[in-house]
What does this fold into?
Amino acid sequence: MKKKELKRIDWDIVKRLLMLLYYDGGINKTRLSMKANMSYAKCVLYLDWLEMMDLIRKEIDIDGSELIRLSDTGSKLYERKYKTLQKIVI
It folds into this structure.
């Protein structure tokens, strides 16, 4: 059986996942898919793509669960492309 792959990249989904990972830090796949409001299977496909593009890294937590974190490249991309600068009104 052939492994599923993304046919098209939805950049809004990429932005949403990067934003969640940027602000939440280490999070497991199930929570990330729920917070991103997408199916687990679709979330895993995007995470595989993000890992292949070196935007995220997978780590093993103390209790043995897998956590997803932004890589340095992913953090820099989010800050450069997506993070909105908030103006401080004095």
Observations:
- Helices lie at 11-24, 29-35, 40-52, 72-82.
